[in-house]
Amino acid sequence: MIESVLRTSRIIMDKIIEENPISDSLYKSAFIRMVKDPSTMLALTVVMIYTVTAILSALGMVATDWNLEVGTSYAAPSLEHWLGTDIFGRSVLTKVIHGTQVAMSVGFFTCLIAIPIGVLLGAIAGYFGGIVDDFVVWFYNTLSSIPSIMLIISISLIMGRGLLAVYVALGATSWVNLCRLIRAEVMKHKNREYVQAAHALGAGNARRLFRHILPNIFHIVIINTSLQFQTAIKSEVILSFLGIGVQGQPSWGTMIDDAKLELARGVWWQLFAATVAMFIIVLAFNILGDALRDALDPKIKGK
Amino acid sequence: MFLVLRSSLTWLLLIFVTASCAKKDDYSQKILYERIEQNVKGFDPIHSNDYYSSREVGKVYEGLLEFHYLKRPYTVTPNLAKEMPQVSKNGLTYTFKIIPGVLFHDDECFPGGIGRELVAEDFVYSFKRLADPKLVATGWWLFDEKIKGLNEWRNAQKDTAISDYSASIEGVKALDKYTLQFVLSKPFPQFLYGLAMSFSYVVPKEAVDKYGAEFINHPVGTGPFTLKVYSPQTNKIEYYKNKKFRDKFYPSEGEESDKANGLLADAGKKVPFLDKIVSYIMVEHNPAWLAILKGEIDEFKLPKDNLSQAITDMNGPTEELKSRGIEVVVERALDVTYSGFNTQFELFKNNPKLRQAMSHAYDAGTANELFYHNQGILAQTPIPPGIAGYDENYKNPNVGYDLEKAKKLLAEAGYPGGKGLPEITYDNLSDTLARQMAEFFSNSLAKIGVKIKPIFNTWPEMTKKIDRQSVQLFAISWIADYPDAENFLQLFYGPNASPGSNNSNFNDPAYNALFEKVSKMQDSKERTELYKKLARLGSEQLPWIFGVHRMNLRLKHSWLKNYKATEFKYGIEQYWDIDLEQKKLKKPQL
Amino acid sequence: MDNLKYFLKRLLQTIPILLGVCLIIFLLFHIVSGDPTHLILGKNATKQQMAELREQLGLNRHWFIQYLDVVKSAFTFDFGSSWATKQNIANMVKEGITPSLTLTLPAFIISTIFSLMLGVLVAYYRGGKVDRYVRVICICGMSIPSLSYILFFQWSLAYKLGWFDISGYDFGFPNFIPYIILPGIIWIILSIGPDVRFFRTVILDELYQDYVRTARAKGLNEVTVLFKHVLKNTLIPIITYVVIQLPYLILGALLLESFFSIPGLGGLILSALNNNDFPVLKAMAILSSIAIIIFSLITDFLYTLADPRVKLK
Fold first, then answer.
1. B57 phi, psi to nearest 5 deg
2. CATH code given to domain B46-210
3. Does any CB of chain A come closer than 8 Å to the CB of residue C27?
4. Of residues B141, B284, B294, nearest to C45 (C-beta)
5. Residues of A in Cβ contact (< 8 Å) with C16
6. How does pLDDT run across B62-115, given as a tens digit for each residue?
7. CATH number given to C95-306
8. Domain boundaries, chain A
9. Partner B contacted by A260 (CB < 8 A)
10. Single pTM value for the model
11. Where are the domains of chain C?
């Protein structure tokens, strides 16, 4: 399932690349476009709320007492416990809120690892070509030939399981798409007039690449991020199921995983709560991703 | 366009409807449906060293002896042997008479496809297989250096291209067609247990020769059930009643409570009762749990971390289980969990006070409540209840939660309040339960100021560290191989240090000397007393922080009869019965 | 001729990739697997036996020779035997392919056809109500984690309503059908969202090409434009999309197979993971990499065959 999302994203991204350099005005008009669309604004608000919740939770300001026994084991949702309680009598609502921290951090750190690698390798390969390019292309072709689930499993095993292992495993396996896209874009841009002009003015390689080309293809990174973020959140569930996910604190993945044995007893609220929490944020990122693409990709304009 | 769409929708719907007609239940035959929670390692007795494989092997294969189905404490009783062996005065020679007329299952490996009669020579062959270095048998340790001439034969086969099975060995010989003699090279009182374990079950040479490496998938035994072929990727194994099974009868004596529990109702009747066994390999707990509730499997071992789903705080079954007629059977495991000190590690080596402080700081009672639903028994020594040598009244003075005492001892050890004590690494496995327990352990010890750093490993990583003696403190457990305290007491025996089973590398000359003496003794009252003494001698020096003796909960439907909890599950299904009338009545209501 | 040369060149290019795959797999699994002797021999292993086994498995040899073993296995398909089950790995894989394919292939075909039809439908009604509803449903469907689907459907349809078997599998043609229907439905639900979105994008892209405008200007009606011109031209990305998914079908569906006890390759990976059975994981990684490499070769070649505009480099 991770595969299929990655695959789809790669193919969709392939389609949306266009030659025009993007200017500031495009970002401006894109911004205006997105602000005008109510569903995009709603999605953006949702992402903001989740982010703030996650940060507050990480700072120990909300849902710190998730480990506290507040009721009987498996109490059904009621006015007192809105989403019921889990096996140890802990509030499912608090756990879901605390789980936001894990989910958002998995999304954030995965992007933080994958994007610099993807951009840097892609840019260098595209710009310098030759042996550097051959090596990078070989490297990502090799990596993408190994099913990412196998890579994720073995990296997590090496890192000894836990949250850090999840970040690294997901980050290290999800930069390939971005790298391919950036490489292709940089190759197109490096012979453009504006780059040639910079060269004539005495700009070095690094300056031309990072000051001139990269800003012009940055929209690819933005679109890719929204996709990668939600893929990472969804992958966390599967990793939790495989027993190589988060340990020692509640995450939506472990809550859904717990539900394996609870459903038979008619305890549906933990599955429900975690699924809905995840559904809302992934949906928001999906809508945001679509909106970003529509707004930033000049080719799709007007459809 | 829409037509295509609509017709394909109708088509899909049609498939759903036809497929959703659930299968009809078959009440004409006694069929046992059971769940196996892990893949089976095939059907070669010499490799059946894990819980799941040995149980499957026991359905098809048999040994000279078996564990008595009803009697407790566990004792062995003749199976393929006519009676218990004659033992020579020096305790080294065992002579067995084999039941004549026992037949191997019909199989293509025999002339005409008809199973031939079992003879004493078959056992000689099977023991050689167990010793054959080329086969890397996982059961070899049991008889290593115990049978006269077998190790010599083994070493001689190491450099040959094909192992020579024709060479005769002094220690295991067929005197005539039905007489088998073992000569041991040193006293080994646990030998008879070994003959009841799945490693020493008898296999026919013809089958091994015919199937070669694929023998693991073509079981040909003498057992109560037959299996034509096992396919490694299957999730369903179907056994059929062995129609040519010899006259073997349900035991007529057992524990006192057995009669009241109806376990003696079938005494003296010919076994097996079941016509067929269907074993589903279901790794996921969820479908198995749903299946037992639905009555699609008859029996089920509850996953350890979900005890509260089946039992209430009062330790009875939950209402839901009761209403479905599902019974909860508690099965005492013959095991012990512990956190072992590496007693050769400088910090622990000459500091018994530090070990005592840590032992008193560990709140084993709360751990038992949290992780075992209070069903575990707090361990005082390694010997679990149910084995001769377990002392119900004994309380280890250096074990037991007592924070004040722990703090005092820690100060006496030279680390008041934990000052000056380095952080101690604590190696664990990485599953969820192990992780939670490690967190609990480090929280416990933090209360007296001892800093514990849990480390999580895969099983191979963990054993590698332990083997190299590079661990400081580690969480692990030991499960009995056979029901004899010696199997637990050897865990403190100096010469067994890592990579042997004494993984805390404990070495006390007085203990070693007494162990050497006791391990040669035959079963007796005197030996049991010495076991108790030995257990105290070792345990009070704290090579470990003791955990619990665990238990398993098994769920079964009321129509499954003659069901008795046992730790030795080789071949127990032959005693089970299905009450078809009851099943017919109850199953459709689930 | 050009085609042949190009194909040969691409074939040669796969060799360094395959060597790289072997290297990565070797490095990863060599680090994690540690010393397997205890895993194979059990807790009572004797010192002598452990030494013998290490010798037999060749663990004492130079690492490069062990790497060459991995490379060799990629060509001979001889992966030795599993640590956990002692079975021949090649046999295990061979037997696992059928159950995996019986589940994934029909589900894949149905979901592809169904999504393609939906994709055409929404492209035809682009911007309208149908388009909007289908897109919303697709996005919503994609936003629910797969595990939740499985748990919910297994619980509701199989357990509560009893329409399907909870789990299990039978070999042989008609026998397996009852067991694959529920997991098949879940597969279809899971893949329809992304598929429809992809097909819609591809078709819309094509609809805004110049030649479509010309065709419309010539007075052809929308249906003719859509089916005669657009669909024909979108065939290449669609075929690519389909072919590139094929190796993953063989790999099976990890979660579905384990929850429905289907003895396929997905379940094989999962149980190998639970048992630290590294030779099996290694074999599965190598085999699936080979499958992915082969199918991407095929895609490339189809591309060049189907579209003369794609210039050979």
1. -55, -40
2. 3.90.76.10
3. no
4. B141
5. 138
6. 999 999 999 988 999 999 999 999 999 888 999 999 999 999 999 999 999 999
7. 1.10.3720.10
8. 32-301
9. yes
10. 0.79
11. 2-76, 95-306
